[in-house]
Automatic annotation (TrEMBL):
GO molecular function: kinase activity
Keyword Nucleotidyltransferase belongs to the record: no
Aspartate/glutamate/uridylate kinase domain: residues covered: 3-218
Described purpose of this protein according to its UniProt entry: Catalyzes the reversible phosphorylation of UMP to UDP.
Oligomeric and partner information: Homohexamer.
Enzyme Commission identifier(s): 2.7.4.22
InterPro entries from the UniProt entry: AceGlu_kinase-like_sf, Asp/Glu/Uridylate_kinase, Uridylate_kinase, Uridylate_kinase_bac
Binding site for ATP: K8, L9, S10, G11, G57, R61, N164, Y170, D173
SUPFAM superfamilies per record: Carbamate kinase-like
The protein's enzyme class: transferase
Domain of life where this protein originates: Bacteria
Originating organism: Deinococcus carri
Protein name: Uridylate kinase
Residues given in the record as UMP binding sites: G56, D75, N136, G137, A138, P139, F140, F141, T142, T143
Length: 240
């Protein structure tokens, strides 16, 4: 059983369906409420200390949306997007009765606490879910690196990389290749060498250097998140 866990959520998990049925955009209160319920129910009675890093891809990705802009500015816009997501998730989680704190890497005193490592740990010890917004507070990174960095800082046992409709890691994209082979476990080095899709290379290297286990799993498969919190094997496990 895990004591402390870092859960990485993509910003897209908060988006509603687009009017044309394609990939969603923005923040849907209904979708966010469903996700919050799923997390609170999974957590109930487990005693697991949970920290969440939320991405911003539903609103803005520096490299995709900021074409023609100063790349650093484009990335800062992306980081601000993650704070919006963090606030939406906080609102939805507190509506389920789960106390939370949003901590932002970019100071925004009116809406979020500043990220202070020891304070984050204190919140976790008190049973609050800590939601990290603002990424690393530095451009040229993604929230994958934030997940790894914060997990190491707070002493998390594992990084849970939540996916939608993908139940773990394959040797190629199962949505494009019907012969894609499922991978149950792999070492960090194998993931690097085989270029398996787990998280971006900077984040993965940090996990490898610090020996931090990663689980890639489908968060929307009923029961998966709770089983993980209880220490059961779900999805693909990456460890050294
Ligand atoms: N970002 C950044 N530094 C960070 C984290 C995020 O510059 O430490 C910016 C970057 O532009 C990124 C955007 O914020 O594209 C949204 O984050 P991400 O793409 O990781 O979101 P996700 O795909 O997980 O929803």
């Amino acid at each position: 059983m895990f004591k402390r866990v870092l859960l990485k959520l993509s910003g897209e998990f908060l988006a509603g369906p687009a009017p044309d049925g394609s990939g969603g955009f923005g923040i849907s209160p209904e979708t966010t409420a469903q996700l919050a319920r799923l997390i609170t129910e999974a957590l109930e009675g487990t005693g697991v200390e949970l920290a969440i890093v939320i991405g911003g891809g539903n609103l803005w990705r520096g490299a995709r949306n900021g074409k023609g802009m100063d790349p650093a500015t484009a990335d800062y816009i992306g980081m601000l997007g993650t704070v919006m997501n963090a606030m939406a998730l906080q609102d939805a989680m507190e509506a389920t009765g789960q106390p939370t704190r949003v901590m932002s890497a970019i100071q925004m005193a009116a809406v979020a606490e500043p990220y202070i490592r020891r304070r984050a740990i204190r919140h976790l010890e008190k049973g609050r879910v800590v939601i990290f917004g603002g990424g690393n507070g530095a451009p040229f990174f993604t929230t994958d690196t934030t997940s790894t960095l914060r997990a190491l800082e707070i002493g998390a046992d594992v990084v849970l990389m939540a996916k939608n409709k993908v139940d773990g890691v394959y040797d190629s994209d199962p949505r494009k290749n019907p012969d894609a082979q499922w991978i149950d476990t792999a070492t960090h080095l194998e993931v690097v060498e085989r270029r398996l899709e787990v998280m971006d290379a900077t984040a993965l290297t940090l996990c490898m250097d610090k020996n931090l286990p990663i689980v890639v799993f489908d968060i929307f498969q009923p029961g998966n998140l709770r089983r993980l919190f209880l220490g059961e094997r779900v999805g693909t496990l990456i460890q050294s």
